[in-house]
Amino acid sequence: MVSPPPDDGRSTNEPTMDPDPTAPQPSRSGVLASWWPVVVLAVLAAAMAYGFSLLIGLNVAYTTVVLLLIGLVTFSLHQWRRRREVAEGRPRLVPIVIELAVATVVVLGAGQLLPLGRTHANGPVTGEPQWANAETRALAVRACYGCHSNEVDWPWYAKVAPVSWAIADHVDKGRNALNFSEFDRRQRGAHDAVEVVQEGSMPPGYYTRFGLHHDANLTAAEIQQLIAGLKATPGFGG
Hints:
- This protein is mainly alpha-helical.
- It folds into two domains: 34-111, no CATH class; 134-231, no CATH class.
- The protein has eight helices and no strands.
- Helix 2 packs across helix 3 (96-111), helix 4 packs across helix 8 and helix 6 packs antiparallel against helix 8 (220-231).
- The longest helix has 29 residues, at 28-56.
- The protein starts with 27 loop residues before the first helix and ends in a 7-residue tail after the last helix.
């Protein structure tokens, strides 16, 4: 007598759903073709972001962090949309550029809440150079005091991230190198002041770009006058 086969808990009347070996499978080239627009868009967005950072003098590290956050939010939105498509059984036809735009707004909006670059303090004037003449001081105020003093005139856009991050970074670095308002102590960048003005690296290009700080655009004659005045002012190593 043959004993029946052991019951494995499955009904013999239930149809089995074996994978169809003849069903078309997505090819690697097809997957790549579906993702190449995303890659191209990401490269273009990154290039624009880094280009904008160079224009305003924003630290590359800040730009990289912002781009990574935007990429993460975009990916999360994309995955959420795909899950909804599967659940509803129909595509929603939302372009990736819309997801990228939403992610950018979310990240930059959240950036406005950070305290970074929003504290615009001007310390006391504890000592100024013994200027050779009033004209030299006036030229230095126009070209240098926007970052190298405790008398910074903070513009309205100094409260809007990520521009506020760049401005705060410029002022902090400028004051640490040379602060005309604290000449009662040693200023390590004073001996380089004449050289950077002669080279044309001060004020930096981003400071006067887009028509900003037009007073800092000194003429050739004013630059030579400032150089001569700095050389004649004690403490600048002229």
